[in-house]
Amino acid sequence: MAATPWWTADAFAARRPFLMARSAMTTALRGYFAGQGFTEVETPALQVSPGLEPHLRAFATQINDPYGGDARPMYLHTSPEFAMKKLLAAGLPRIFQLAQVFRDGERSDTHHPAFSMVEWYRAGQDLTALIDDCGALLRATWLAVPEDLRKGGLRWKGKACDPMRRPEVLTVAEAFRRYAGLEILATAPDPLHPDAERLREMAMYASIKLPESGDWEDLFFHIFLEHIEPKLGIGAPTALIDYPLSMAALAKKSARDPRVADRVELYVAGLELANGFAELTDAGEQRRRFEADMEKKQRLYGTRYPLDEDFLAALAYMPEASGIALGFDRLVMLATGAEKIDDVIWAPVA
What we know:
The protein is α+β, with helices and mostly antiparallel strands. The chain has a single domain, classed as BirA Bifunctional Protein, domain 2, CATH 3.30.930. Helix content is 35%, strand content 21%. The strands form three sheets. Strands 1-5-6-13-12-11-10-9 form an eight-stranded mixed beta sheet, with helices on both faces. Strands 2-4-3 form a three-stranded antiparallel beta sheet, with no helix packed on it. It has a two-stranded antiparallel sheet with strand order 7-8. Helix 1 (9-35) crosses helix 9. The two termini are 16 Å apart.
């Protein structure tokens, strides 16, 4: 029997309270940023490069020349990051965007191929400002939810988090020590080339079972997802900082500890909600990281995406800044008690 279309009156009625809450949360979110002096921007979803995280799959398309020239390959962005950083280079100091972004091959209770991301940047400010923003946004959007849906805080799969509490700041090293009994930074005497075998030995002594194959990053995430992530953001939100340098992505190396990067992730009720950086502005280093990521993508998946040369050129003009992206649909789920992401999206992808 075919599923009932989402747009029928009965099917929509079940989701309507979540969506009304979403609308109120959207208004509260915009109100917070307006009060902080941010400019709301809109950047095109169609980009030369969709984002270069090795494990993300983008939707490909092309632009056809109306005057008969060759068609150019393009992609739907996985994040508005590159375009927003160009606006920082152009001179805007505080910007945010509630953007629709696209990732292929992702569909589950917490993933959707088209979803809403809140991304914002503060020129001249560090991760502390972003963590404060996250806490304030959780509070502002939570208070916008109708009281009949606010049952025990932000919640997910039986776990709860009080959005009125300030985020607990926890380093990755502290999290591995607390929840897995491992000294994760000791497995990376060379920060850019962590030692998988050393991590295996530590895990064995801690009675943690690992898969037989996989590099250091694979083992890191196996331990993280099994033993650490489910315990983050319980009671109060968790701001996880100081990721190993090999996982820096677009973040700067920490000035406090050369083994780690200035990166933060926000966790609520055991669910990842946001990912942010003290932004890297060294174009040469960024190019090196992008090329390494595309080599990994080619090795793992047999494909690669082009570099946005315009973005790399803009880095020379971009000020020191911090930026973060937060999954808005997930936040609505946590605030309303919805069980799956499709329940809080106005028109789910068929």
